[in-house]
Design a protein that fits this description.
The protein is an all-alpha fold and 64 residues long. It has a domain of 26 residues. 75% of the residues lie in helices and 0% in strands.
Length: 64
């Protein structure tokens, strides 16, 4: 007996793929809205984050 046959016997199982699809779509819509609302200064700050002095010092301390 295949796994699909087990799922067909569960009543109400067809709602779970729809719920997971809705969570997936809502997450990416929220992500797009957040990115659109970002200010230019915040984007520049995030761009330069890997190059900041504080980050370089922390990385060097952790590698020793």
């Amino acid at each position: 007996m295949k796994f699909k046959n087990y799922l067909e016997t569960i009543s109400g199982i067809e709602i779970y793929p729809m719920i997971s699809l809705m969570i997936f779509v809502l997450f990416f819509i929220a992500l797009i809205v957040w990115v659109i609302q970002l200010k230019k200064s915040e984007i520049i700050e995030l761009e330069n984050l890997p190059f900041s002095e504080n980050n370089i010092n922390n990385t060097q301390k952790n590698s020793i």
